[in-house]
Specification:
Elements (H helix, E strand, L loop, with lengths): L9 H8 L4 H8 L3 H6 L1 H8 L2 E4 L3 H10 L3 H4 L4 E6 L2 H13 L6 H4 L6 H7 L6 H12 L6 E6 L6 H25 L5 E3 L15 E2 L10 H7 L5 E7 L10 H10 L6 E6 L9 H11 L7 E5 L2 E2 L1 H10 L6 E5 L2 E2 L4 H10 L5 E5 L1 E2 L6 E2 L3 E4 H22 L2
Parallel strand pairs: 1-2, 2-3, 3-4, 4-6, 5-6, 6-7, 7-8, 8-10, 9-11, 10-12
Antiparallel strand pairs: 12-15, 13-14
Helix pairs in contact: 5-10, 7-9, 10-11, 13-14, 14-15, 15-16, 16-17
Length: 396
């Protein structure tokens, strides 16, 4: 005979079980076949809408297996891909070369997993089979609309970041190839662990070469990004080869392949704010034209010249409603004019400005953070006045 709990309407059962921690929820589902069946829909929706994974071989195989189970695969909407940081990679390399027993306790504690996990995850996928397997997995997720690729540790110095960005680049290119092959039409692609630049500290940075695609591949990217509404990129533009002409145009073409973008977030030279290369990307974007639906633009940890940013904003005058400038390095003295343009011309509803470093390093502009429409003009006027005051005090 069915118990009272088994006879409850599914909506009421789902409401009750929503208050249970994961372990207790699983125990409840094992009480009887009837409860297991009744709670299956809510269980899948609760724990399979977001899948957290890595891009090691075991994880890719698990994704491929999951994609064959229809009741689970159709509920997956977000793929959360974690990239190991430099410390993880070092620990896993030790495990692979010397054996798990040679990994010290201090190293092992940096990676939350067993020694077997260290050995397995140190085998980075680098061949065509990995792309095909991942593409086959993505095909099996019909409702997948977002992929977020990020690291789980903050920047730990220039050398470590350089090593991590190389591995992040490999993973990003693998993911990009799989997206193209699977013909998955995403709505969101992000290299951040967070909703926006102002809250994320765990970005996954890719080297600039990964975004400079050959011309024959650009039409394919247009097709892949046809439904893309939100794009967040963290691009490592350090060590740009001077022989690599117009490299910034390649990055620009990659971004503009997503013609339906409503939100664009860029972090350029995230750990080397003095690099002059990132300003070329904004200049190229200003010359490329406009994204017809762009409503939100975020720029972080980048060097930008005022006129280029002003031209880019001018092209998006009709649609832009939110602007964020986070730790931007201004490479000329025209930024007060740019700030005045933002204040007097743009009809934005939300503004976030923090720490604009000017061409004189002693001068900084710090706003109070995120401000809404009624206070934007007041904040920008105060910032411009403070800049002029500081410049006057410093003298020629």
């Amino acid at each position: 005979m069915a118990s009272h709990l088994e006879r409850l309407p599914l909506e009421l059962l789902d409401l009750i079980t929503s208050y249970l921690p994961a372990l207790e929820y699983c125990h409840l589902r094992l009480v009887s076949k009837q409860l297991h069946t009744n709670s299956l829909r809510a269980f899948i929706k609760r724990y399979f809408a977001t899948i957290r994974t890595t891009l090691c071989w075991p994880s890719i195989c698990h994704l491929a297996e999951l994609s064959t189970i229809e009741c689970y695969a159709k509920e997956i909407k977000l793929l959360d891909v974690r990239i190991h940081n430099w410390s993880d990679r070092k620990t896993m390399t030790i495990a692979r070369r010397r054996g798990p027993e040679k990994v010290g306790c201090s190293d092992a504690n940096k990676f939350n997993g067993s020694y077997q996990d260290l050995v397995e995850e140190s085998q980075a996928p680098e061949d065509v089979d990995a792309v095909e397997t991942l593409a086959q997995a993505l095909k099996g997720f019909p409702n997948l609309h977002a992929i977020r690729i990020y690291t789980h540790a903050q920047y730990l110095g220039l050398l470590r970041c350089a090593k991590r960005s190389h591995y992040s680049t490999e993973c990003f290119m693998l993911l990009l190839d799989a997206l193209v092959e699977s013909k998955t039409k995403l709505q969101e692609l992000s290299m951040l662990d967070g909703k926006d630049m102002t809250s994320s500290t765990y970005s996954s940075m890719g080297k600039y070469q990964a975004f400079c695609l050959p011309s024959p591949r650009l039409p394919i990217m247009h097709e892949t990004f046809v439904n893309l509404r939100s794009l967040s990129l963290c691009i490592d533009t350090t060590n740009v080869s001077i022989t690599n002409a117009v490299w910034e145009n390649g990055i620009c073409k990659f971004i503009y392949a997503a013609t339906s973008l409503e939100s664009l977030s860029l972090e350029l030279d995230g750990y080397r704010i003095e690099s002059p290369h990132s300003s070329s990307i904004i200049s190229s974007m200003a010359a490329e034209g406009r994204l017809a639906r762009l409503q939100r633009f975020e720029l972080a940890s980048s060097m930008v010249d005022g006129p280029s940013l002003q031209r880019f904003l001018q092209q998006h005058l009709r649609t832009l409603r939110c602007l964020a400038l986070v730790s931007v390095n201004a490479d000329d003295s025209t930024w007060p004019t740019t700030l005045a343009f933002i204040r007097d011309t743009l009809e934005i509803e939300q503004l976030y400005i923090t720490t604009i470093h000017f061409f004189r390093p002693e001068i900084r502009i710090d706003s109070a953070g995120r401000v809404e429409s009624p206070l934007i003009k007041e904040v920008l006027t105060s910032a411009i006045d403070q800049y002029k005051k500081d410049l006057k005090l410093l003298g020629p």
